């Protein structure tokens, strides 16, 4: 008797099983299928992480004339009908490249929890550590440059989730000081390439028995890291980490602070084919005290760097294939605390943004209410945003990775890409 379990039936079964058990859908949406088939317009990502929870109404979602603004004004931008805070005059001139997502929302109002969800799309649990987006990108898409690391973290904090449960060779390469480049990467004086090759071969020979009898994936990952590090030390591509090769005018344009030089290094890494670069702003946007004074001190450097990065990528023809994203843990309360003159944590609504990489330019998605306290239209969660980024890169949102304990996970958990953000 012929089986009634046809190919279509199998596919329907798998779609329903994945939807119920994993919270994903296997190309059931024609728009998702088409986007996935195209491979995504973005080839690299630069993630700007504004540590501390940057205020949305003092930056990219102002409420003109409202007392919650504490006298801060909104200004016009290069995008019609999109205003931002007067503290970002340079960035305002780049708004035609940018999509603001003003309806971001979360339930995580603690820094560590908010940062973790922003980077991984998952809630923090005591039983497992999830990988950040850069590790997913490297795992699913590989590295465009076969010598350089495909995942780089500049000025990152120790709390960054890194590669989570994934193999250690997928972890981001940490760069503490972008002006100093990649430390301890050059050959020692008097130590030749042949010396390095001979020692590497000796180490591999001595460790072969251990590797053969230890099938744990981290052993293989360590050997892969060792091999890649040795190849990089001998490569001309190593010079990409040396930002002193940039002219002084360019370095000044980005800003001579860590965030500015980090973004300059990120641009160099994109040019060299690095897949995912995250740059953390070393300023603390956790403005519980003296909101206005703090923002006046911090915004000039952030405005300068972000505007220069977008303009530089555009002028070099890189922005169309490079997705720049800005994330933070949460927003800040609309009302300023009378006792501290600052704003508290506010995950109910906040703003993230995207630029380049196939996204719309000069567009504001979603709305917060009249004082920036709640989402009024088109809520977007952190997993939704990250699913959008993953789709822009051409990552398979339905692809399942298993933790060492056998639990299944997808790149953006149950997030659904926001199709309205694509150009």
UniProtKB/TrEMBL annotation:
Q: Which InterPro entries match?
A: Alkaline_phosphatase_core_sf, DUF1501, TAT_signal
**Species lineage:** Bacteria, Pseudomonadati, Verrucomicrobiota, Verrucomicrobiia, Verrucomicrobiales
The name under which this protein is listed is: Sulfatase
Q: Which Pfam families match?
A: DUF1501 (PF07394)
Highest taxon above the source species? Bacteria
């Amino acid at each position: 008797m012929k089986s009634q379990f046809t190919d279509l039936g199998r596919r329907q079964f798998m779609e329903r099983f994945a939807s119920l058990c994993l919270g994903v859908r296997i190309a059931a949406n024609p728009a998702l299928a088409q986007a996935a088939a195209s491979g995504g317009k973005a080839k690299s990502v630069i993630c700007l992480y504004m540590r501390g929870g940057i205020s949305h109404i003092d930056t990219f979602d102002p409420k003109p004339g409202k007392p919650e603004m504490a006298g801060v004004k909104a200004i016009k931008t290069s995008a019609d009908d999109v205003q931002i805070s007067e503290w970002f005059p340079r960035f305002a001139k780049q708004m035609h490249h940018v999509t603001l997502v003003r309806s971001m929302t979360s339930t995580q109002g603690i820094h560590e929890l908010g940062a973790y969800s922003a980077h991984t799309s998952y809630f923090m649990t005591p039983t497992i550590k999830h990988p950040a987006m850069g590790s997913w990108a490297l795992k699913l898409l590989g590295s465009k440059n076969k010598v350089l690391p495909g995942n780089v973290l500049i000025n990152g904090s120790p709390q960054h989730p890194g590669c989570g449960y994934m193999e250690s060779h997928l972890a981001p390469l940490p760069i503490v000081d972008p002006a100093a480049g990649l430390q301890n990467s050059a050959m020692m004086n008097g130590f030749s390439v042949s010396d390095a090759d001979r020692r590497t071969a000796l180490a591999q020979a001595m460790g072969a028995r251990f590797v053969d009898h230890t099938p744990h994936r981290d052993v293989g990952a360590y050997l892969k890291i060792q091999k890649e590090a040795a190849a990089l030390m001998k490569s001309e591509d190593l010079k990409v980490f040396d930002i002193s090769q940039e002219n002084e005018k360019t370095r000044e344009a980005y800003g001579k602070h860590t965030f500015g030089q980090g973004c300059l290094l990120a641009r160099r890494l994109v040019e060299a084919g690095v897949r995912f670069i995250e740059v953390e702003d070393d300023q603390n946007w956790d403005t519980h005290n003296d909101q206005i004074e703090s923002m006046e001190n911090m915004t000039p450097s952030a405005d300068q760097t972000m505007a220069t990065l977008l303009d530089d990528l555009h002028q070099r023809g890189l922005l169309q294939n490079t997705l720049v994203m800005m994330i933070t843990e949460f927003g800040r309360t609309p009302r300023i605390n009378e006792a501290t003159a600052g704003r508290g944590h506010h995950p109910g609504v906040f703003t993230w943004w995207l630029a380049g990489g196939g996204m719309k330019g000069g567009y504001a998605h979603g709305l917060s209410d009249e004082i920036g306290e709640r989402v009024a239209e088109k809520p977007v969660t952190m997993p939704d945003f990250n699913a959008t980024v993953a789709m822009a890169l051409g990552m398979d949102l339905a692809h399942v990775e298993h933790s060492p304990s056998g639990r299944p996970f997808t790149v953006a958990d149950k997030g659904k890409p926001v199709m309205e953000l694509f150009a």
